[in-house]
Amino acid sequence: MPYRRTEKTERRLAEVRERIVSAAWDVVAESGFEAAAMSAVAERADLSAGGIYRHFPSRGDLLTEVFRRASGHELDVLASVAASDGTVRDRLARVVVTFARRALDGRRLAYALIAEPVDPSVDAARLDYRRRYRDLFADLVREGVTRGELPAQDPELTGAALVGAVAECLVGPLAPDHDHADDESLIANVTALALNLTGVTTDAG
User: Fold this and answer.
1) Is 70 exposed, middle or buried (0-12, 13-18, 19+ CB in 10 A)?
2) Residues 37-58, mean pLDDT to the nearest whole number
3) Which domains are assigned to the chain?
4) Measured torsion, CA atoms of residues 168, 170, 173, 174, in degrees rounded to the nearest 10
5) What is the pLDDT of residues 169-196, one digit of tens each?
6) How far apart are CA 198 and CA 119, in angstroms?
7) How far is it, in rounded angstroms, from Cα 155 to Cα 194?
8) What DSSP letter does each residue of 7-56 carry, written as one string?
9) Which residues contact 191 (CB under 8 A, 6 or more apart)?
10) What's the Cα-to-Cα distance from 201 to each of 39, 105, 118, 195, rounded to whole Å?
11) Is pLDDT of 205 > 70?
């Protein structure tokens, strides 16, 4: 008769898996993906490296899970802001401000998610999430065009431009060796740039 895991065993395995992901997330948030060696994660999770491999076949699998969870959390936050009350212009501005401020408040993790060289499997997940961010912006732009709040344009193209511009503007300031400047000024300038990309001038009402 084939062995079947009990509910208690399944729960224990799930708890260990979550402990591993949490430990890896902490290491990445503190020091980036490069520092998240299996030995470092195992020490943080109070497990053996072999114990981690029972849950994740490779380091790439583990770090991809961390990337997806961290990026998914950030995307959920921005989706909530995008769905809030207000004009499209106001909501777009709030999305960009929220993205930039959260990134600057958690610089090391944000840099890891946006720009740090990573395992190919993590890079594939990064491309997937860039498309999701593009779609979030594109939906806002599409709504703005439909409601007459934004000039006619290709929402997907503008969405892609917004993702690229906002991310590129933040990469330098997020870099571990960067001398931190005035974050509020940076956020204001990035937000103005994002609005201008949609055809809105920052002095518009």
Assistant:
1) buried
2) 92
3) 60-197 (1.10.357.10)
4) -100
5) 999 999 887 766 689 999 999 999 999 9
6) 34
7) 13
8) HHHHHHHHHHHHHHHHHHHHHHHHH-GGG--HHHHHHHHTS-HHHHHTT-
9) 93, 96, 97, 100, 202
10) 51, 27, 37, 7
11) no
The whole-angstrom separation of Cα 86 and Cα 96 is: 15
Structure tokens given for 171: 């990469």
pLDDT at 93: 97
What is the model's pLDDT at position 13?
Answer: 83
First-last CA distance in the chain:
72
- What residue has token string 């497990």? 47
More confident residue, 79 or 14: 79
Hunting for tokens 């190919």 — which residue is that? Answer: 120
Number of residues that this document lists for the chain: 205
